[in-house]
Amino acid sequence: MQLRHVDAGSCNGCEIEIAQAFAPVSDAGRFGARLVASPRHADGLLVTGVVTKNMAVPLQMTFEATPRPRVVVACGDCAVSGGVFAGAYGVVGSVRDVLPVDVEIPGCPPEPSEITEALRRLTGR
Amino acid sequence: MIGVLTVPLATGPGLLTRIGASVLQVVAVGVGGPLLLGLMGKIRARAEGRIGPPIIQGLLDLRKLVRKEAIRAEHTSAVAALAPLVLVASAAVAAAVTPLVTTRPVIGGGADAFAVVYLLLMGSVALALGGLDAGTAFGGMGSSRAMTIGAISEPALLVAVLALAVQAHTSNLPGIVTASLSHPEWLASPERLLALAALVVVVIAETGRIPVDNPSTHLELTMIHEAMILEYAGPDLALVTVGEAMRLGLLLGLVANLFFPWGIAVSGGGFALLVGLVVLGAKTAAIAVLVALVEVSTAKLRLFRVPELLAGGFVLAAVAVTTGLVTR
Amino acid sequence: MSTAAYLIGLGIASAAALLGAVLPARRRLLGAAVLSSAACLAALAGAGDVLVSGHAFSLHTAQVLPLTGVDLSLDPLGAIFVVTTAVVGLAVSCYSVGYGAHQTPSRTATAMLPAFLTTLLLVPAAASLATFMVAWELMALASLLALLTEHRRRRETRDAAQWYAVMTHIGAAAILLGLVLLAAHAGGQSFAAIAAHRRHLSVPLASVVFLLTLFGFASKAGAVPLHVWLPRAHPEAPSPVSALMSGAMVNLGIYGILRVGEDLLGGGELWWWLVVAALGVVSAVFGALHAAASTDTKRLLAYSTVDNIGLVLIGVGAAGALAAGGEQALAGLVLLAALFHLVNHALFKGCLFLGAGAVQHAAGTRDLDRLGGIARKMPATAVLFGIGALSISALPGLNGFASEWLLLEGLLHGFASHSAVTEAALLAGVATLAITGGLTATAFVKALGVGFLGQPRSEGAGDAREVGPSMLAGMGLLAGGCVVLGVVPGVVLPALDRATTAGLAAGAPRAVLPGLGLALASVRGAIDPALLVGGLLVGIVVIWGALRLVPRSADLRSPRRAAAWGCGRELQTARMEITATSFAEPLQRVFADVLRPDHDLEVTHTAESRYFPEAISFHQRVDDAIERVVYRPVMAAVTWWGRLARRVPNGSVHRYLAFGFAALVLVLVVLA
Ligand code: SF4
After folding, report:
1. Rounded to the nearest 5 degrees, what angle is found at the Cα of C146, between the Cα atoms of C144 and C150?
2. CATH number of the CATH domain containing A93
């Protein structure tokens, strides 16, 4: 399972936890998950943060650039529901408002183990 | 000696066996390459305190990729579609004619070390053109960097091969390997060792490993090889990945057999081939482990320091030839 | 038979030149083209017969040239050059119909192309000093006029013509001097007489003659440091003329070196040939580096000619050195490789120049930084140019690979020669081949990838339309040659073998076994490109077929077209594409010591603070370092000398009388 990470407007808290998910303690990589550099190489998007006005179109473009079949993972409360930024002035909405979301990882930020857990559900291992 | 090499293909004894052996080599490289990459990833993970993905992860990913959708950027020409095919085909032909499992691959007399070098160049050129086809900034940048590095690593490769060819009085690869089998003292000769050092540098550059390139970078500006292939998806990406892995497997196998030829099948028998295959796997795995250990313990070089490393490889190779001539 | 066919060829070619000058505007182009094609075919038949049968012909007519008459003789060595010229000439004649169609060329332009062709066909058959020099000078003149026909009024064109005229005439003077010395000693001016006398020559005299002629021929061949005219003349000449210059004229420099060094002087000293090989090494590396850094298509091609001529010179030098050491078999192999590369270079460089001309014709520019996306607008041209570009990059299955492989094998086996100096030269040769191989691939990936792929970078490139059938046919002929000689190189080897034997003073045994592939006769080495190509094709088909068989849902079966991945940028324009300049930038930095790029960075700050720039402008130019280091000082010195000399004649009659008197005294002193 290869994912392209898109920061749609996060506070970078989620990013730190994602990095931890791939670090020695949880090691999401051992289940076959990997972050890749291009959506073309990916099987889905790992979106963090609330979708801001500036990032809505790029997010959609990234989704379009991903070969099918593809999944969208919303990581963190912001991505799932808007979190603390819900309804703020520069915000379009949660990821669900822009793209079809397949997996949600709640938490602000989610624990590395929770992220790994969600990725394992995708890789099936 | 001369007669053996110039026998026309059709009249050679055991043509079918030889074709079979070559197909075996291509399959071995096609499957072994991704496994070697997996092994290197595993070693790296272990050294970093992780468990890491299973060694067969590369093959699993390939199976997934071929089933996915292919995407081609609008405005691309046939080059983008052809480049991955040419990359894999050139690597496959190179694998078929190189003595990896057996010293008697098909058209062993119709191809030689220089041909293998230029077949590898063919793959690089195809990829570089593919990188330019979509007309994106990073694709072109990757092509430019890859060609620059190739332009300096290819001479080192050619001259290192020359050092071996001068020693064996032929550039025919089966010939070199067979001659090395009967002259074990060559393997410890200074020119061999120097050429080995040069070849290792080249292999690292050609396969895009640290310290030349970082295969797992996500930052486009630091990319060399990754930037060229940002545009490929699905089956195309599977081809590019497998092509690159085959090149790695081929080069490691070549280095293994040129510097430690024992175990390679000299007769056409099935058992000999099996032994050859197992030994090849063991030899390449050993080199792969070494390369991976070097990788974890070094930092990537700045792009403009890489040519210095490669020029060093070139000089080593040239010194190897000279040493061979002087000590003759 | 061969004599008649060859002479008829010459005749028709001159008739074409004449008709080009006199026919009315509508007919002149077609008339000249048809006649020159016929001339090429006739010359091809004549010279081909010499190559196949191995019998030279010669004839002498006292009437044509006063005092000396004309001596013509065509042996296999000359014939290989005539054949090469004729093939390129045929393609160029065909191409010129479409090239001139948009705007009828002037009388001079139409006449000069066949005239140039005639002289090119004539030089390799000249068999006496007088005939040779006349043919050589006519060739220089015709090519100079042909060069000037298109943009005569542009400053660059005039500059290029001046450089070319000066270089070629200095060269011709050196050749004349060398040959006259030789003829004076031999007591006859026909080549046969000179060659018969070659044993009685003293070594110093022979060496002086060799060096003088080498200077002249190397300047025609475009060897560094005498190459400066090439990157100026090629871009400015009309493309058919560039193709003839690079595909046929520079070859004659090599011909001259072989004819004088091996035939007239009998092989001579080892060090002569080491000098030749050294010239080759320097030319190849310098040319390849500049080609990799150039952003003007035709300038790139011109430097690549310098590179390839360098490779040929390495082969010629190594062959001469091996022959001087008594290694006839190895010498034959290396010379065969060099001649083969020369023929191949004529094919792919001719094709590339014609292709570059077609693009310039259609897109209105030859600047790679302003091209792009041509492959979709001009697919046929792109394929043909691509074949040329991949051939020159020595990809297996195309002709460049075949001859580079032979050259590598020749140099490799030359190591058995046991002469330390020769070995050092061979090592330098192999290293050069290796270095230029990578650089050439880079240069042509740039030309092909930036010029033909991607998005158009200018309006002209966007509006380009495919060129007409005659131009495509011209390019196709040469590209077809590249493919045939790449897949079955064995077909031309018997002919090349004959030329090689004729090219070495002591002859050479057969170097390559008969067959379609390349199997060396005297040493161990073989290659069969047809099998490699077969393997590649089978591989491609099998992989493609296997991918089709993979089960996947119907909507995923065919590739989807999507916007190129630009990292999520909403706006993507061709301005964001990589340009040829930036493509070459990393290499240029790596080799900054040789290329010496000129940088010019200007930052204008805002009035308020030095920390905020208002405008930044950056310029970069890669000039020819040799031109700057070697030629500029010489030109400055000549100018200075001219200024100084102008002060001497001040108009006073007394002073002039004094000069006359002084000179008279001097003469008397010298005579006494
Ligand atoms: S979910 Fe929390 S940690 Fe993640 S981006 Fe939103 S605010 Fe930051």
Report:
1. 115
2. 3.40.50.12280
Domain count, chain A: 1
Distance between start and end Cα atoms, chain C = 60
Closest CA to C96 of C202, C161, C7, C17: C17
Tokens of C407: 């050259």
SS3 sequence of C450-476: HHHCCCCCCHHHHCCCCCCHHHHHHHH
* SS3 sequence of C568-579: CCCCCCHHHCCC
Q: Which amino acid is at C471?
A: M
A110 lines ligand 1 (CB under 6 A): no
Pairwise CA distance, residues B3 & B17, whole Å: 20
Query: Where is B82: in which H helix or E strand?
Result: helix B78-97
Which structure tokens are listed for C270?
A: 């080892």
Element (H or E) spanning A46, and its range? strand A44-48
Q: What pLDDT digit, counting tens, does each position of C631-649 carry?
A: 888 888 888 888 888 777 7
Which residue in C has a C-alpha nearest to residue A4's C-alpha? Answer: C567
Are A36 and A62 in contact, with CB atoms under 8 Å apart? no
Element (H, E) at C644: helix C632-647
What residue of B is the nearest CA neighbor of A21?
B50
Q: Among B61, B206, B118, which Cα is nearest to B198's?
A: B206
Q: Which two tokens stand for residue C184?
A: 């004076």
> What residues of A are in contact with residue C559 (Cβ under 8 Å)?
none
Tell me the count of A-B CB pairs closer than 8 A.
61
Question: What digits encode the pLDDT tens for the residues B204-240?
Answer: 887 777 777 777 777 777 777 888 888 888 889 999 9
Q: Please identify which residue in the block is written with the tokens 């930037």.
A: B227
ipTM of the complex: 0.91
CA of A108 to the centre of ligand 1 (A): 5
- Among all chains, which residue has been given the structure tokens 């091809």? C44
Domain that holds residue A34: 2-123
